[in-house]
Amino acid sequence: MLLQGKLYQAVRWVTVCDKGGLLQPTDIDLKTGNLVSEVLLGKQPVPSQPPEEALQSYDELPSFININITVDTVERVASRMQGAVSPGGVDSIAWQDWLLQFGEAS
């Protein structure tokens, strides 16, 4: 949104003024009285390893398909993206920015 010149909408989206705003990990959660970071950690499930019998075994593995995705491929696909529905709930312009403007980091 910032790159489109929509500064006001971008700030509103980040701060969500009508719902209390952005919380930092060191802020206190008003519902529990705990640190936001502690509340978020408490929501994480305890890691566990599935029992071996829960995993399927295969006699034969499918063949590996070698896919070569180059910078040109990413640029071509990103330039053709349209619409507002995408992973993460952002529009195609944001996806194009993420894919094309940040070089190797993206």
Structure in words:
The protein is an all-alpha fold. Among the domains are: 1-43, no CATH class; 76-106, no CATH class. The chain has four helices and no strands. The chain has helices spanning 7-15, 36-42, 71-80, 92-100. Helix 3 (71-80) packs antiparallel against helix 4 (92-100). The two termini are 18 Å apart.
What's the short version?
Helices cover 33% and strands 0% of the residues. The chain contains 4 helices and no strands.
The gross shape turns out to be flat
Number of helices: 4
Q: How do the helices and strands follow one another from N- to C-terminus? A: HHHH
Helix content: 25-40%
Quaternary state of this entry equals: single chain
Task: Please indicate the percent range of residues in DSSP E strands (runs of 2 or more).
Answer: under 5%
Which blocks of ≥5 consecutive residues have pLDDT under 50? none
Straight-line N-to-C gap: 18 Å
Average pLDDT over all residues: 82
Q: Structural class of the secondary elements?
A: mainly alpha
Q: Major sheet, described briefly? A: none
Round the Cα radius of gyration to an integer and report it: 21 Å
- Topology, number of strands: 0
